Amino acid sequence: MDKKLKTALDAAFAAPPPEGKAAFLRAHRRRELGPAELLLTQAGYVRWWTWAGSAALFAAILFLAAGQKPETVWAASALTPLLALLAVAEWGRSRRYSMEELELACRMPLRVALLARMAAVGLLHLLLLGLAAPVLALWGGGEMLQAGAYLLTPYLLTAAIGMEVSRRIRGQEGLLACAAAAFLVCALGMCAWRTWPDMYHAENVSFWWAALALTLAASAFEFVKTLKETEELRWN
Amino acid sequence: MALDIEEQYDRIYRYCYFRLRDRHRAEDVTQETFLRWLSSDTYRDTGQTLRYLYTIARNLCIDEGRRPSAEPLPENLPAEADDPLLSIALRSELDGLSPEDRELLLLRVVNEVPVGVLRGLYGVSRFALYRRLRGILKRLRERLEG
Lengths: 236, 146
What we know:
The structure holds two protein chains of two kinds. Chain A has one domain (49-235). Chain A contains eleven helices and no strands. Chain A is elongated. Chain A is mostly helical. Chain B is mainly alpha-helical. Chain B has helices spanning 5-20, 23-38, 49-66, 84-96, 99-110, 115-122, 126-145. In chain B, helix 3 crosses helix 6 (115-122). The mean pLDDT of chain B is 81.
């Protein structure tokens, strides 16, 4: 639309200035939580053992990464699914205890609370893996980005499977199924390394980039799907 | 979705004013719309805030329109037009439009309500909305040029 007509329409629909706007806004201004404040508030609701478990696994990954043995890389890489298991367990907590309907009725909707909690746990895990990657690169050989792919790929794969499983299976069985999936990914890493010992060598890095892209896409897809489901529940 | 209440206040007020043609009643309805919105958390984070606000405003305007009221005094509207002749011609052309078309024009062009929100508000497809809006603008242009 041309600017002249738009300006003329704005003028044609001009209304006399409201008289009580300032007083109304002063009286009813509602304080919104900022992103950082929301994150910190919701991080307080994440159970202590998620943080403690993450710290313990990080220590174990660092210990293995600094081991300077041939199996160092796969062993460190095989521990990251357990880190993802902690995140998925937190993600499906309301569902597991059948509390999602109650949480949907709360002042802070389930969707926002889940996003904030997952952002808190996910950022911590990303930071921990980011700290572990240089150690793995230094002691296990290879570059830092490469080491990052070794750590992130099993993490994202477990997260994607975990989200899918926790949507399909409810209750404690869901958590057990997620744990089984996490251990399966660990075992898969070990078996892959036994059958293909060169998989962590620099010449096969393209395989890791492809795997990382795939798992990233899968976990993003699962994440969006789960979030959409909370919205559907809300409207029902 | 974070909502800029200050900005939306003016838009909802303008919408109410053009439905009621009375600044005091329009302002009362605008404030009642926001009070109802503020007292409800149900729609705050579903991306439906604007649609919710306009639905409340529309329903309140319909209720308010049914009540008998004193004849509103003529208002001194702020003259913001660059081209006063075009503005006068446009006002008379707008009076010739149906109230529904005038409302759609106000919401989409002046209040800049996204098509996605209007789609939900009117319960029609995006395509139908675009076609109707194009038709209204075309008719307006033709009449202004003719």
